[in-house]
Design brief:
InterPro entries: Tropomyosin
Radius of gyration: 43 Å
Oligomer: single chain
Structural class: mainly alpha
Pfam family, one: Tropomyosin
Keywords: Coiled coil
Strand content: under 5%
Distance between the termini: 152 Å
Largest sheet: none
């Protein structure tokens, strides 16, 4: 009877110990699962932040493309933004039997997550600096474009002033009989002799044929429309010369403009004065 009671007591003691151990293990596993949930949440936040960074990279590349178009040879192209950072982290794998190994693995993962967060912070700082540099470049480009526009306006004014002065001078010489139709015809002969071979873009064969017709036409029959056509053709030849880097075309364009000015003063203006 005593032995049975003793055995029952031992069994009760063992059962109690087993229940305590199971409760303790359950608490440890609950703690581990909680830490896993925290790590997964942090990884999800990191992935969201990295996606936002990728979107910012796309916007930055678009802005750089716009800048490249505006610079148009003034500056070398802005270096492309650094390529995407490699994979952030591989998933935690193979949680095995021993609790100690899982805890060590979790500690290592937490350290790596902290390093990744630091790395993302550094990347965001670099992106902010890149955006600041791009804004500065855009401001500088705007300043250069404004200065170029101002220079173009000033050059255009100088060209107009030069043309007006030349026309007034030729008119004065023509009125005094110093510059006559003889000199004008001599200038026309020179322009016809120097007539350049047409190109393919602006100074085409069609333009070339029209210019020959105007130069072969009797100057006494010139109209203001003919003079305007001569100037328009001179503009096309000059444009072709700049794009093809042909100085001879540029110089010929100015000779043609000068002839158009002389023809207007010597042949067209007298007819207009007679009509009045």
């Amino acid at each position: 009877m005593v032995d049975v009671i003793t055995i029952i007591a031992v069994i009760v003691s063992v059962a109690s110990s087993t229940a305590s151990l199971a409760y303790w293990l359950g608490g440890r596993f609950t703690e581990i699962e909680s830490r896993f949930g925290h790590v997964d949440s942090r990884l999800g936040q990191i992935e969201d932040r990295f996606n936002k960074i990728e979107n910012r990279f796309d916007k930055i590349e678009n802005r750089i493309n716009v800048i490249e178009g505006r610079i148009n040879g003034v500056e070398e192209r802005v270096n492309r933004i650094e390529e995407r950072i490699g994979k952030v982290e591989e998933r935690i794998i193979n949680i095995e039997n021993r609790i100690e190994k899982i805890e060590n693995g979790l500690s290592g993962i937490e350290d790596r997550v902290s390093k990744i967060e630091d790395r993302i912070n550094r990347i965001e700082d670099r992106i902010n600096k890149i955006e600041d540099r791009i804004s500065n470049i855009e401001n500088r480009i705007s300043g250069v474009e404004n200065r170029i526009n101002s220079l173009e306006i000033r050059i255009e004014r100088l060209e107009n002033a030069f043309k007006q002065f030349s026309e007034v001078l030729i008119t004065a010489l023509e009125s005094k009989g110093i510059f006559t139709s003889t000199e004008a015809l001599t200038l026309r002969s020179m322009v016809k002799t120097l007539l350049p071979v047409p190109r393919t873009k602006y100074y085409t064969w069609e333009v070339y044929e029209r210019l020959r017709q105007l130069l072969d036409k009797d100057p006494n029959e010139y109209t203001m429309a003919d003079i305007e056509q001569l100037n328009d053709i001179a503009d096309l030849i000059e444009k072709e010369g700049f794009e093809a880097n042909r100085r001879d075309l540029i110089e010929y364009a100015w000779k043609l403009r000068y002839y158009a000015m002389v023809a207007k003063v010597v042949f067209v203006y007298p007819k207009l004065r007679q009509q009045k």
